[in-house]
Write a structure and sequence with these properties.
The protein contains 14 helices and 23 strands. By secondary structure, the protein is α+β, with helices and mostly antiparallel strands. The chain has 3 domains: 243 residues, 2-Layer Sandwich (D-amino Acid Aminotransferase, Chain A, domain 1), CATH 3.30.470; 89 residues, no CATH class; 160 residues, Cathepsin D, subunit A, domain 1 (Beta Barrel). The strands form 4 sheets. It has an 8-stranded antiparallel beta sheet, sandwiched between helices. It has a 6-stranded antiparallel beta sheet with strand order 2-7-3-4-5-6. Strands 16-17-22-18-21-20 form a 6-stranded mixed barrel. Strand 5 and strand 6 form a beta hairpin. Helix 3 packs across helix 4 and helix 7 crosses helix 10. The protein starts with a strand and ends in a 12-residue tail after the last strand.
Length: 513
Amino acid sequence: MTKINPLRIFREYLYLNGSVLGLNRRNLDFIGPYNPFRFRKYANNKLLSKRLLRKNGIPVPKTIAVIRSKEKLNNLDFRALPKSMVIKPAQGTHGRGILVLFGKSKKREGWIGADGNVYTEQDLKEHILNILTGLYSLSGRRDYAFIEERIKVHPTLKPYSYRGIPDIRVIVFNKIPIMAMLRLPTRRSRGTANLHAGAVSVGIDIRYGLTTDGIILKDTAFWADQYERTNIHPDYKYLELSGLKIPYWDKILTYAVKAQKASHLGYVGVDITIDRDRGPLVLEINTRPGLGIQVANGAGLLERLNAVKKVRFASVARAVEVAKALFGGEIEEEVESITGKHIIGLIEDVAVYSPAEVYKKAKKEYKKSPAKLPKPKKEVNVKAKMDTGAFYSSIDLQLALELGFYDLLQFDRLYSTRYSSLDKAREQLTNLRGTYPQGYGSVVGFKLVRSGSGNTVRPLIKVPTLLGDEIKEITYTVANRTHLNYPIIIGRRDLRGFLIDPTIRRVTRRVIY
């Protein structure tokens, strides 16, 4: 393990680049202005949070009992309680006061805790009494306890969790997920998934829901800043922490955004666990989420927060999509650096440009007969489909005309002619090549295209195209695609140098050519 002091590393690098969020700036610039005091009670009290979330259709763990006084505690029938359960303070913080019980002991009367100890009925009463007196509360004030169902850990995460419940912390600001990490219970944390208790925190790539790298505190004191970076679980030496795919990832991000909206708070940390049977469940909302998530992800929060301050989205799905586009991609960058190829989606926003000589000529022709011709454009932004089943790329006739390729009008009969006989199609191709050996103006040639619906002969044009982050001059076959979903398809001849990930959906962008 490599020892890391985030105060030193982040001051030397991230602070200099203005991307890390410090404690004072978090409090003054984000918690103060964006978290109205009258709404903080919903986040500071776990029971109020659960009630609010349940009211807004967000799944939460079931509450078994609530103990608000010594009288309630004395009247509590411990024999009626389930074998496995979790006892929590309503206003606790940093995982303090949470007692996870796995089942009844066979050797002696009592419940087995995450630390392996057996807790008798008297032990549980004393623990609940400590909660009521405010031992674990935020400000030391009197508190109340509640007993909750124990989550059945999802099979994907169970091998990584020492007797406790792992959870995912998602920072949400302005209804957009900003950063996320997976928190795994360890022997040292006694089954709780809290970094300051000794749990492991692992960064998550927001786009893919894949874990990246882990950290653990060297000292579990509240203000400790000595971290160790690790890719191996401290209790299970054979388990690597990176490359783990989080189940229900899109649903987790969706619930995180919905929880923030329901709380009426602008900047929160939403803790979500995954139950084996019920899927994602929201555990709680935090008004002052810790800053260690930056170390786990090797990235600063401030830059991301500033990027979405003024962004507004009515749709939760759109907010999740934007978060993936803006803040995901660590895994993608790693793949690109290894393969030397850019990763693109199945459907991409592309820009097509009119070549200078074509545009200049088209402007003159348009002035002569504007009623018959579409006004030429220098640039058009459209959605294109990456089609590995096609060798050549294809562009819609109307789109090509918008770019000023007016010479295509000379071949109007080609777009509606389909040849059932391959020989006739070849004959037509030979005639065209003989008549126009070098093409015709902006038309550079002709191509025979065979498909299940028949054989066609199409003109060829060269169009500069922004694909991914690269402008390529692509030779397109021209066809009437008005009845199809996409005006452009990119064939595999022009996809060399790219890897296709069908899960990627990018945000529309504009680049000046």
